[in-house]
Write a structure and sequence with these properties.
Strand order of the largest sheet: 2-1-3-10-4
Protein name: Porphobilinogen deaminase, dipyromethane cofactor binding domain-containing protein
Number of helices: 10
Structural class: alpha/beta
Bound molecules: the ligand NCc1[nH]cc(CCC(=O)O)c1CC(=O)O
Strand content: 15-25%
Organism: Hygrophoropsis aurantiaca
Oligomer: single chain
Helix content: 25-40%
Length: about 350
Amino acid sequence: MASGIGSQSTSTSSPTTIDFSKSKPRTFVLASRASKLAQIQTNIVRDALEAAFPALSFGTSFMSTEGDKNQSQALYLLGGKALWTKELEVALKENLVDMLVHSFKDVPTTLPDGCEIGAILEREDPVDSLVVKQGLPFTDLVSLPDGSVVGTSSVRRVAQLRRQYPKLVFLDVRGNLNTRLAKLDAPDGPYTALILAKAGLVRLGLGDRITADLKGPILYHAVSQGALAVEIRSNDQDARELCRALTHPETQWKCLAERAMLRVLEGGCSVPVGVESELTEVERDEGGLKSARLTIFGCVTSIDGVGHVSHKMDERVESAKQAEEAGEKLARWLRDNGAAAILDAITEDRQKHAEEATT
Ligand SMILES: NCc1[nH]cc(CCC(=O)O)c1CC(=O)O
């Protein structure tokens, strides 16, 4: 019998009618990256599963991914690969684990064959936050002195902020959140401030480090930022059934619309695409979310911050699929109105760097 942490799951059957009370006991192993944030997020999902299915048992397993190991190369150049998910997906497919817990924004818009998103949990506040070095008096981006060094490894943040704050200097900063904050506060360190996702700080109990929240039009957040997703094997009916109970439909509709936009723009996790979405006039029935008005804003910015295309759409949607279609439509508008040229230039630049690195 499978039991304990990191144990191999032995159940491979997929019953057509699921009756967990009668089926053989099976421990569902949840897995994620090994960072403190990833572990906290995995525990959030495990707690939710235990609360919903008290008769079942759940274990956890943590591993490091390429994104954790490769701390030297700029994320911009590593862009487009499944940096934070690939090793985990291999373990999932080999039945070593059963459910992967991801920050949804780190999940590529196309999943490997045999894997699917089973659950999308309620989103934390998706905005980015400014975190100023301990002891400094600055309260927002405007108050930072000329030449201040702002740490972030995200091309989206750099591109959007360069446009509006040419006085600031942007510098890569890598490592998990605690490492980054230690680099920020180091007395002789270069950084005056960092830009970090609010959700990660809040989940780590570091919300008191937030100096200011940044949202549009100053900074549009990343696709799916702030939401957790659970990835499962497509043939694991039991896991799918469990996951269904965890999904927060409003978050699902918004995040799927945002991801559909990104997929059409053919960007990975590290392209300068910003988004904000909202559901209003929400109608519900016994089946859950029935219809809502989806307002979705999307933008694509060139790396130097000079080129910028944005658009906002508003549509009545009656399913997750229709929300995705709205996201796709927004992406096509952006592509046809200048985003294609910006993204092509980035692809070319990445290829140039890759060639230089190998010759
Ligand atoms: N790989 C970075 C990453 N992926 C998810 C989060 C934060 C949590 C979230 O967006 O759900 C972060 C840290 C950050 O961007 O500051």
